[in-house]
Amino acid sequence: MLSMEEGVRLVLIGIGATVVMDVWSMILKGLGITTLDYSMVGRWAGHLRHGTLAHASIGKASPVRGELALGWAIHYAVGIAFAALLVSIYGVQWLHDPQWLPALMVGTLTVVIPYFVMQPAMGAGVAASRTPTPWRNRLRSVLSHGVFGAGLYLSAVALSQVGSY
Q: What is the pLDDT of residue 164?
């Protein structure tokens, strides 16, 4: 069981790692590389309440009110959930003594969620198989989740430098 301080630390690590991933996405966008539009995540989630899990093309699905905000909220909630996954696998001690390899491994392995859940549900196929450049998209996903893993570690180390959190 996590103490209140450990719970806050876990949430801040998840948020920090997601921010690192978002900075990575901004760098990619600056280089002209397409990245995930989180309004599409919100659109997908908005359609779930009507019983639609999968779409032929999420971009062609009807827009959902507040989809951009919903997509970003989901993005950060998932980042926190993935931080919790790391701690559930490696133990609460990781929060106090973060190690880079577990963070990088868990971060990178979380790519299974977009490969086997989000991409198929949004019409891109398993592991982006229905996109024009599936291998490029797969590599981009792996790199982004690796960056997220690095963000888990960097956020944990930064928090340990700040003090009690």
A: 53
For range 41-65, the mean pLDDT: 96
User: Do 73 and 39 contact (CB within 8 A), yes or no?
Assistant: no
Coil vs helix vs strand at 7: helix
The two three-digit tokens of residue 84, written as one number: 């919790």
Q: How many CB atoms lie within 10 A of CB 87?
A: 23
**Three-state SS for 52?**
coil
Mean of pLDDT over the chain: 96
Distance CA 11, CA 77 (A): 9
DSSP secondary structure letter of residue 62: P
pLDDT value at 162 more than 90: no
Q: Which residues contact 114 (CB under 8 A, 6 or more apart)?
A: 141, 145
Instruction: Evaluate whether 143 touches 110 at the Cβ level (below 8 Å).
Output: no
Pairwise CA distance, residues 117 & 146, whole Å: 18
pTM to 2 decimal places: 0.94
Range of the domain at 90: 4-162
List the structure tokens of 14.
Answer: 């998840």
**Counting Cβ atoms within 10 Å, is residue 98 exposed (0-12), middle (13-18) or buried (19+)?**
buried
Quickly state the pLDDT bin for 56 (edges 50, 70, 90). Answer: very high
